[in-house]
Amino acid sequence: MPELPEVETTVRGLAPVLHGRRIARVIANRPDLRRPLPPDLGQRLTGAVVTGLGRRAKYGLIDTDRGDTMVFHLGMSGRWRVDPSEALIHDHLVIETDEGRTLALNDPRRFGSIDLVPTAEVEDWGPFGALGPEPLGDSFDAAHLASQFENRVAPAKALLLDQRVVAGLGNIYVCEALHMAGIAPSRAGGRIGAKRLDLLAESVRSVLLAAIEAGGSTLRDYARPDGELGYFSKQWRVYGREGQACECGTMIRRRVEGGRSTFWCPKCQR
């Protein structure tokens, strides 16, 4: 599933095509994805000017001058295609701009979603209401982690994946950040000291920024809007590397919990 860096990369790829442009046409090739599309989607977007693009957690945001924000989630296989040379069977939503550019939301598995939310209400919109701070924002730091981890017996990995603790982190980047910080995924949050929490906060930021710079990680169907693949997978320290040597020489281990794989180095991470 695309995680924060993949969504951030997607939003940045859409900005040169959409920002400041008027939406000339909206074509919904089916009435739903994971849930029904807004019934008035075309009416509210056609003729609107895109005033900004952003991201919240793993959702992309497209603001218009009509006070609406289109909120999209890529699900497991969604991606936007820019100026596609041909239409594909899974191009479920197509947007054309006044400049003659085309964007097609392609989602073979249809686990993604499209919503229209009044821009003034986005911050408190359903899925966003209980989210923690953005890991690349000013509100995320060691002090925040300390307040969330204090006296907690839950494992560090589970706490970082809890969207109420920090928004947008997913399995890949949590595994990578914990390795960079030298913290075992199973270590109880309440047993992590202040210095290591400071290192963990910095590691989360560093891993995410490096992934965004590399265009994200390529997993299954994910690709950037320009069609290029993300290359951060070539920088993975532990994720997907079971049985391979860590930089310390120890073999990387893997276990599966709740359908998720955890990768870690038993020597580097304590």
Beta fraction of the residues? 15-25%
Helix content: 10-25%
Please give the count of helices. 6
Q: For the record, give the distance between the C-alpha atoms at the N and C termini, rounded to a whole number.
A: 28 Å
Which secondary-structure class do the elements indicate?
A: alpha+beta
Question: Which value, in Å, is the CA radius of gyration?
Answer: 20 Å
Q: Quickly count the domains.
A: 2
* Poorly predicted sequence stretches spanning 5 or more consecutive residues: 219-223
Looking at CATH, the homologous superfamily of the largest domain is MutM-like, N-terminal
| Number of separate strands | 10
Subunit structure: Monomer.
Binding site for DNA: 90, 109, 152
Cofactor: Zn(2+)
Domain FPG-type: 237-270
Please give the structural blueprint.
Blueprint: H1 4-18, E1 23-28, H2 41-45, E2 50-56, E3 59-64, E4 68-73, E5 79-82, E6 91-97, E7 102-106, E8 113-118, H3 142-149, H4 156-161, H5 171-181, H6 194-213, E9 253-257, E10 260-264
Antiparallel strand pairs: 1-6, 2-3, 3-4, 4-8, 5-7, 6-7, 9-10
Helix pairs in contact: 1-6, 3-6, 5-6
Describe what you observe in this structure:
DNA binds at residues 90, 109, 152. The active site is at 2 (schiff-base intermediate with dna), 3 (proton donor), 58 (proton donor), 260 (proton donor). There is one protein chain. A hairpin with a 3-residue loop joins strand 3 (59-64) and strand 4 (68-73). A 4-stranded antiparallel β-sheet has the order 1-6-7-5. It contains 6 helices and 10 strands. The chain is an alpha+beta fold and 270 residues long. The protein is elongated.
